[in-house]
Design brief:
Length: 256
Amino acid sequence: MGYLLEVKNVTKRFGGLVAVNNVSMGVRAGEVVGLLGDNGAGKSTLIKVISGVYPADEGRIFFQEREVHISSPMDALAMGIETIYQDLALAENLTTPANIFLGREKMKRAAGILSVLDHQFMHAESGRVLEKLDILIPSLRNRIRALSGGQRQAVAISRSIYWDAKFLIMDEPTAALGVAEQRKVIDTINLLKSHGIGIIVISHQMHDVFQVADRMVIMRRGEKVAELVTKETNADEVVSLIVGAETVTQRGAGSS
């Protein structure tokens, strides 16, 4: 089976600094790949290239088995590639439906003349997508600032899925969450896998990555130093690769 998303020989430079050097990786539909590495390893730069924040200096990107040129985040969104950053990019003074439809609000005619927000439609649709993902928000009328960290994460995920995301990049999805909320986020990621969504997870929470990732790509100093099948490795080996105690490894990654 081919890759849903694949990057081939991607390089990104900032002046004389090579932030990402000749990196290739792929993610299949319904697969989670953990992208791991220490601070400064190049993980964030790589996902920003995929999501259109930075242009690659070299290399090619393929999505749904055709080459694509992602010049901006809007290009990525239009293709169905969504990035959920650690800060979630939610408007805390707005409700859950208002955030799910933020920038894409549903309008309706009032008195046959005025165009006004269709709050009823947005509320109903938000409830539908939350139910689909088995996510419980106490009240959709509560403002985001009143929600817990896990509930906010759920709203960000729901927004992506409602707008037909085919591929998710999740940056530290369980950071700063309690144990119960971490478990819920992991359950949601596994549910997304079952719906055929391809996912890259960046996380320093090694235990969480082992629970959701099918494969792991390890980066160090801008280069991919290992690609491992999760069930064939362990935390000690992964940590050794992250800090540079082991040599380049590639096992069981399969082919496109």
